[in-house]
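Continuing the batch. This is chain 6 of the set; chains 1 through 5 are on the previous pages. Same settings as before, nothing changed between runs. Recording input and output for traceability.
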Amino acid sequence: MKSGVPAGIVAALGLTQIIGYGTLYYSFSILAPAMARDLGLTVEQVFGVFTASLLVGGLSAPLVGGWMDRFGAATIMTFGSAVSALALLLCAWSPSTAVFAIAIVLLEVASSMVQYQAAFAALVEIRPKAASRSITYLTLIGGFASTIFWPIAASLGEFLSWREIYIAYALLNLLVCLPLHRWIMRSRTPAAIESSGLNREAIAGALPVQARRRGMLLVSLAFALQGFTLSAILTHMVPMLGAIGFGAAAVMIGSLFGPSQVLSRLINMTFGANLLPPMLAALSATLIVASVVVLGLSGTWLPGAVVFAICLGLGSGVNSIAQGSLPLWLFGSVGYGAITGRMAAARLAAGAMAPFVFSVLMERLGTDVALLANACLGAVGMGAFLAVALAAKRRPDALTL
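Output for chain 6:
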């Protein structure tokens, strides 16, 4: 990766993101029914534990972000891989519901140490001015996590118990992710940095100092609302489409989300070099809102549902890039870990509550009203992104991310 972050580091982080998201997040929904049967719980109770753990993980994000600024993101990711393996083993061993709940909470705390928030911070540390481009490459690779691990979890579940699968996942984190994170950590020593010749000049940020508190609140609100909208829709996508009237086609429609998410990152990587992060964030919010509106208006019209899934995937893919590039553009590279940690806390907390709130709205007020409410929240987030963009004073160093 000429004049940017070394391609080997981006590729290594991409592999660890696939494993991190696949083992700590995406596989859970596939294995939850087996967990429930084994522990004597309902599936709803298992997901209730998972929702609580997401909330705790979100609340821990600012603390983890501060650790990244203090000790280095790669160091925290190395430690996080060990914690991930330990949490997976604890979950696999759990003899009771209480131990299982503690293990799942620990899994989500570990997630904030090894997933996108940490990987973005590592890229910013290595070369701030090339970080936005590198984040796009990284999210393109990481976007395959669900595509790879959903079928892996389903296939393994045919001849292994969920506990045995989690043991295998622990070994992946311990034997693959931890050595790669440690390699990146060792490559960031002062001697290695000097010999690499990389330009690590800090980015000042486009938002004036006096406007940063308001900007932080607006951007955190916008990402939180996007997190709520995406989490609500994704959790209920297939059953919601079935309830609308698409029946067996609901699974086919939902399957368009993943490829669309990857496609948006590929398009941005190819054509989005001159698109500023605020516009990228606003585009993401627009696509997500448009997807919900299209579904609400199209009813049982199949092309409308297809457009919904594609727009939602495109918006979600761009959103992941904006989560890393917008804070860097607005606030600069100094203290990036703590800044993104505070934003992640609001986004993850909103995302944790979304499935429950959306299900209540659908049950009591109907799917159309729930979709309308979701679209309205997304529109508020879109407005917040635009307000921050207007407040930013564009500086030459911010424009060359």
